[in-house]
Specification:
Blueprint: E1 4-11, H1 15-26, E2 31-35, H2 42-46, H3 79-93, E3 97-99, E4 103-109, E5 112-117, E6 120-129, E7 151-152, E8 169-172, H4 176-187, E9 192-195, E10 205-206, E11 209-210, H5 211-218, E12 256-257, H6 259-265, H7 272-282, E13 295-298
Parallel strand pairs: 1-2, 1-6, 2-3, 7-13, 8-9, 8-13, 9-12
Antiparallel strand pairs: 4-5, 5-6, 10-11
Helix pairs in contact: 1-3
Length: 299
């Protein structure tokens, strides 16, 4: 039934799948990396905005065998260089990647695993799922109550300010994506409202070094899951920080509101700024009218 025998099938052509392929290749283990999309690193390639840069310095670009060795270790790669880095990685090490192949099912069989794909089936000794943690957009339930004439997009669909309708923009979520998009819109003179989440803040630099340099020296990035206070800490939001324009902490934006708290309050805000916020942004959840020119971006 599963005619093609192979040592290992790796599902997913992102950084985890490619790194694993590198090590399997070094050990001479026959394997294949199956990527559903037409090219590897799809999230970087097709789900980032135009001005995107890494929030980690270049010295932390450390795919095995291809650690950063350029002239700007403290710089931040723009999107085009990130994509090129992964494309070059495959070519450099001759990794056996097959794009455009979707994996439908992996099942345990008597002497290994049966893997059903859009391009035939595999009989594998090992199967590794390397599809990543953040591939499914999280859309707040309240979005269903927002009128149809309000443009709603996920941060993975956002490209640049000119791609949005004119008018105020609500960005829901203050993780790294939400905070960076809100900052870009604000710098383009858009009226921006930022619904805060639980992401914290850190300085970009301290005592002459990047904050991630300090985290590296302190061993923060080497922490094992077993050493965390709770397994849920694996999914804690990353702090707000940016690599744009040489790197900087995110400014404290004036229009920051906790959406669940504001919605559950139900009372009319008394000051002008808050009243404007309810009129423009939170109207579909109350008794107010939201302008059709507004946008909502879950970040």
């Amino acid at each position: 039934m599963f005619s093609r025998r192979i040592d290992t099938v790796v599902v997913g052509g992102g950084q985890a799948g490619l790194a694993l392929s590198y090590y399997l290749s070094r050990e001479g283990r026959e394997h294949v990396v199956l990527e559903r999309e037409s090219a590897v690193a799809n999230a970087w390639r097709n789900q980032r905005w135009d001005s995107f840069t890494l929030v980690t310095p270049n010295f932390q670009v450390r795919m095995p065998g291809a650690e950063y060795d350029g002239n700007e270790p403290s710089g931040f790669m723009p999107l085009s260089e990130v994509v090129m880095y992964f494309d070059d990685y495959i070519t450099r090490f001759g990794l056996p990647v097959r794009c455009g192949v979707e994996v439908f099912r992996a099942e345990r069989i008597r002497d290994g695993y049966g893997v059903r794909t859009s391009d035939g089936d595999y009989h594998a000794e090992n199967v590794v799922i390397a599809t990543g943690l953040y591939q499914s957009p999280k859309i707040p339930e309240f979005s269903a109550a927002i009128p149809q004439d309000v443009l709603q997009i996920h941060s993975g669909e956002y490209r640049n300010p000119s791609s949005l309708k004119d008018g105020a923009v609500l960005v829901v979520g203050t993780g790294q994506s939400g905070a960076q998009i809100a900052e870009e819109l604000y710098q383009r003179a858009r009226t921006v409202y930022l619904s805060i989440g639980s992401a914290g803040r850190v300085p970009r630099r301290s005592r002459g070094k990047d904050i991630n340099d300090w985290f590296t020296r302190l061993g923060t990035f080497d922490t094992k899951v077993a050493a965390l206070k709770s397994p849920r800490d694996r999914f804690s939001p990353h702090p707000q920080i940016s690599g744009k324009n040489g790197g900087h902490p995110h400014p404290r934006l004036r229009n920051r509101h906790s959406l669940p708290r504001a919605v559950s309050n139900g009372a009319h805000p008394s000051d002008y700024a808050a009243k404007e916020l309810w009129t423009k942004i939170f109207a579909p959840l109350g008794d107010f009218q939201i302008p059709s020119s507004s946008c909502c971006i879950p970040g």
